[in-house]
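Re: that backbone. Tokens:
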């Protein structure tokens, strides 16, 4: 089934009776060439690119819940390529290019909207840091514009520009950044993988990883044992638990991150705006809700819900930056479990176990990484060598100390990145 404007029109006029399910619901086979653990954005994109780029279709994605029920459907949908450090810079640049072709590639409307991102700064020192980051982005071939006070005032007139404590000095503008409809990204990759023959198996929790003579041979699941020549772990906030099934102890802590949405309002915010001093960011969804968030809850947890102190903290930051938000009514809040690495950068690598591969450590920035991560992880699994843009995401950097990518410069503390 292909989507097109004509098809939508025809179905709309004939009672929407001609649509078929987006993917099959197969029973797990006894054996696959490749098993991907985790049906989030990264797992589904990996399966899609294994099939599309490498012709590998004897593949299963095993998901303990339903597709898109994890962080891929819980994030605040920001997509950007505004990293400054080598390693991250080329990876996110590649990922953004994949975003720009995603809707054609998947024949799926993921509502990718390049509305631009503005990172505000509030001191001379922060302006220097923004200029340095902007130069790194331009060197990488991406777009960055340093805005002065008037430039920000013109684009974002609704902010409190002269706040006594945090006056706005300017902003780093990334016009190709923006947002996308998060769960549509999961559905689009799922549909694309399924169409190429990948089995997407929901309600199938991996409970054990089988290893013989230092080589992976399959997995144990809530729906029985499945043999596999290669296994990829892509389970975001559960990375430590699943890697533990293979006897590995990862340098990952799982922390809660919350987000919030207001009732639907008329268009007021055209961009994505981040408030560095208060750790607050905001955009407006196509339905009109103001979507915003702040920092981690700071304690390690596997509970996908937050707490009131952080809610209060985020609301305070919101009111500091844009007092007009006080008139909006909050509709709901939710939380997700973040796989925080010690340097705030991800891991895409082989493990010490032959045939077992690892993809994790996306912290709270993994949504924008979905296409790039899937592409690079598929490359690694299929060819047993790193894909160039993700070549620095090595696991052993936490053992040797070489190649750390501490983008925030906050040191080796997981919850500060
Ligand atoms: C509130 C919030 C806001 C965010 N905002 C942004 C943002 O604006 N921009 C951005 O780039 N990123 C953002 N993120 C981060 C981003 O959502 C994540 O980094 C990314 O989604 C993680 O990768 P994933 O999609 O594969 O994870 P998930 O969707 O969580 O996928 C992992 C899957 O593995 C499954 N699983 C776990 N254990 C097992 C098992 N034993 N067996 C089988 N399956 C298993 C889970 O059920 C889950 O479906 C945000 C996250 C949150 C929570």
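Recovered sequence:
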């Amino acid at each position: 089934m292909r989507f097109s404007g004509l098809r939508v029109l025809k179905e709309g006029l004939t009672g929407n009776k001609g649509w078929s399910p987006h993917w099959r619901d197969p029973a797990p086979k006894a054996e696959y060439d490749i098993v991907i653990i985790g049906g989030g954005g990264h797992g589904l994109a990996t399966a899609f690119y294994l099939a599309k780029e490498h012709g590998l279709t004897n593949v299963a994605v095993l998901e303990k819940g339903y597709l898109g029920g994890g962080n891929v459907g819980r994030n605040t949908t920001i997509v950007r390529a505004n990293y400054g450090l080598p390693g991250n810079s080329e990876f996110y640049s590649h990922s953004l290019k994949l975003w720009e072709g995603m809707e054609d590639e998947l024949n799926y409307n993921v509502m990718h909207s390049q509305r631009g991102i503005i990172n505000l700064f509030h001191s001379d020192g922060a302006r220097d840091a923004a200029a340095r980051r902007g130069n790194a982005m331009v060197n990488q071939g991406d777009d960055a514009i340093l805005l002065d006070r008037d430039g920000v005032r013109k684009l974002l007139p609704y902010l409190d520009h002269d706040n006594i404590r945090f006056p706005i000095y300017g902003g780093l503008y990334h016009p190709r950044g923006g947002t996308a409809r998060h769960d549509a990204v999961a559905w689009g990759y799922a549909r694309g993988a399924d169409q190429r023959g990948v089995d997407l198996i929901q309600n199938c929790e991996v409970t054990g990883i089988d290893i013989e003579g230092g080589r992976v041979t399959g997995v144990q699941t809530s729906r029985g044992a499945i043999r596999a020549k290669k296994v990829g772990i892509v389970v975001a906030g559960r990375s430590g638990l699943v890697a533990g099934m293979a006897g590995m102890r990862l340098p990952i802590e799982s922390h809660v991150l919350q987000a919030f949405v207001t009732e639907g309002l008329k268009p007021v915010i055209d961009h994505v705006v981040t408030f560095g001093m208060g750790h607050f960011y905001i955009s407006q969804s196509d339905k009109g809700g103001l979507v915003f968030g702040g920092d981690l809850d700071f304690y390690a947890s596997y509970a996908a819900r937050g707490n009131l102190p952080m809610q209060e903290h985020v609301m305070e930051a919101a009111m500091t930056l844009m007092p007009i938000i006080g008139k909006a009514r909050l509709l709901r809040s939710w939380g997700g479990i973040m796989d925080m690495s010690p340097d705030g950068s991800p891991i895409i690598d082989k493990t010490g176990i032959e045939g077992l591969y690892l993809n994790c450590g996306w912290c709270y920035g993994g949504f924008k990484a979905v296409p790039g991560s899937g592409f690079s992880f598929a490359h690694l699994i299929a060819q047993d060598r790193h894909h160039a843009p993700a070549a620095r995401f090595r696991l052993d950097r936490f053992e040797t100390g070489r190649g750390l990518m501490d983008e925030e410069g906050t040191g080796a503390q997981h919850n500060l990145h």
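Residues 37-43, 62-65, 69-72, 74-78, 205-206, 234-238, 242, 257-259, 293, 336, 362, 364-368 surround flavin-adenine dinucleotide (CB under 6 Å). The first strand starts at residue 31 and ends at 37.
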